[in-house]
Amino acid sequence: MKRFGLFFMLSLMLLPAFAQESLKIAGIWWNDKKTSKIEVKEENGKYIGTVIYINPAKYINGEPEKDHQNPDAKLKTRSRLGLQILSGLKFNASDKQWQDGHIYDPDNGKTYDCFAWFDADPNILNIKGYVAGIKWLGRSTSWTKVTK
Question: Distance from CA of residue 137 to its chain's centroid?
């Protein structure tokens, strides 16, 4: 019984550390081309990312680009501004990665499975999108934390 109590107390002490680690992904990030800012936040235990800024140089006739490459004809006229492009990421503490997510690439209209991680720099978020469950069959991108 004492072992259970000790284990329980240690678990309670480590829980905030895991929560803090999982929150590192939350924030506002520049995409790799520095043309858009994506806000990543926790929603129902998973992380999502939404485009909150598009460089005005990318506007067409004074409006943000549309989602022209979307395979759904009904969605081709929606704005890329406000578009949720990242969804479903869950933090895996043992791997120190956010996994089981999806990332939408508005440049080609395709959605990929994805995972995210940090290397040494906590201001660089690495994301890899892949197909058919084959992680080496994909493409990586790095987003940079927005600093004010």
Answer: 19
DSSP symbols for 76-131: TTSBSTT-EEEEEEEEETTTTEEEEEEEEETTTTEEEEEEEEE-S-TTEEEEEEEE
Contact 77, 64 (CB under 8 A): no
How far apart are the C-alpha atoms of 104 and 97, rounded to whole Å? 19
How do strand 84-92 and strand 97-105 relate by DSSP bridges? antiparallel
Domains identified in the chain and CATH numbers: 2-145 (2.40.128.520)
What are the tens digits of pLDDT across the range 59-113?
Answer: 999 999 999 999 999 999 999 999 999 999 999 999 999 999 999 999 999 999 9
| Helix or strand run (H / E) with residue 18 | helix 2-22
Residue 133 is predicted with a pLDDT of 84
